[in-house]
Amino acid sequence: MAARIPGEEDRSIPAQSSALVVQLMPKRRKHLRSVTRIETQVYTKPWNASLFMSELALRTKRAYTVAQVGLLVVGYSGLMFVGDDAHITNIAVDPIWQQHKIASRMMLQNVRLALKAEATHLTLEVRVSNKAAQALYQKFGFVPAGIRKNYYAEDNEDALVMWANDIDSDAYALRLSAIEASIPGATISEVPK
User: Fold this and answer.
1) Is residue 75 within 8 Å of residue 102, measured between CB atoms?
2) How far is it, in rounded angstroms, from Cα 69 to Cα 74?
3) Quick one: average pLDDT of 2-23?
């Protein structure tokens, strides 16, 4: 029997995604153990708890979200605000919860938070080899804008820079509505004031 992290439920996935209820909320200190557990599973050079704490301290310039199913943190994402741009700093889903639209839910939340901060454009970097993530971002209107050579220092992989422009437009709102309608189950979203 595998040891469980105190305070977390069983990490097993419900049989039907239509029964899934995901809660999105601001990341807090109490989530750090779960976030770093996911971070070490999905990144070759993971951030540590201290780095996440320093990011959380930048409240007016950053917004971090966790996705929970019950008490279990299954994903997290972060945004950095610079002028009328919002930069997605990270997005990660526990590997056993991938393919359940957790990342799509967090992307929708990222857009909501960016709009709340009066951003009109979103940007991010993604590994050139990560085709699944690129496909997700393309659904959200991101288009390639350039390459950052050797961006990922641990293996010298290039990053594809992607942008989504005019996220405050009616056309973009329709795109988001279509994405939201395609997600099974329920999402309970808490957007901070």
Assistant:
1) yes
2) 7
3) 59
State mean pLDDT over 5-16: 51
pLDDT higher than 90, residue 51: no
* 3-class SS string, the chain: CCCCCCCCCCCCCCCCHHHCEEEEEECCHHHHHHHHHHHHHHCCCCCCHHHHHHHHCCCCCEEEEEEEECCEEEEEEEEEEECCEEEEEEEEECHHHCCCCHHHHHHHHHHHHHHHCCCCEEEEEEECCCHHHHHHHHHCCCEEEEEEEEEECCCCEEEEEEEEECCCCHHHHHHHHHHHHCCCCEEEECCCC
Q: Is 137 a catalytic residue?
A: yes
Mind listing the pLDDT tens digit for each residue in 14-24? 555 667 999 99
| Residue 76 is a catalytic residue | no
Q: Of 39, 64, 76, 137, which residue is the catalytic one?
A: 137
Q: Can you list the domains of the chain with their CATH numbers?
A: 20-189 (3.40.630.30)
pTM of the model: 0.87
Residue pLDDT, tens place only, 66-107: 999 999 999 999 999 999 999 999 999 999 999 999 999 999
Taking Cα atoms as reference points, which of 37, 86, 27 lies closest to residue 61? 86
Q: From the candidates 39, 76, 125, 172, which is the catalytic residue?
A: 125
